[in-house]
Amino acid sequence: STITFLVTVMGLLQPDHPSQILAALADPTSPLRDVKAQSQVMNDILHARNQTLVAEIQTSLKTYRRVIVPWGAMHLQEVESWLRTQNFQQSGEVERKALSFW
Fold first, then answer.
1. Would you say 1 and 40 are in contact if contact means Cβ atoms under 8 Å apart?
2. Backbone phi, psi, residue 90, to 5°
3. Contact, 35 vs 74, CB < 8 A?
4. pLDDT tens for residues 66-91?
5. Which end of the chain has the smaller Cβ count within 10 Å, N or C?
6. How far, in Å, CA of 28 to CA of 61, rounded?
7. What is the pTM of this model?
């Protein structure tokens, strides 16, 4: 269901005609309107990936004292929560501009 959902989203980004976007969004059988599919997508692309990341951090910390985790913004809250439960302490913060519109 995740692949079907993502293929549907990609179709919205490259329609043959703009009316296809509205038709896809209005279609009651579209995966985009399926709450169960939406939940599955979030589990697959966010939570499951976070679990994999946490496992990689744990493995890396057996060998390395410092691990840098360049990860997407939606992942950071869950990863940060895990780090805090493991008694990690924040030692600094750097803010970077991600987007600039003018």
1. yes
2. -70, 130
3. no
4. 888 777 778 888 888 898 898 887 78
5. C
6. 47
7. 0.64
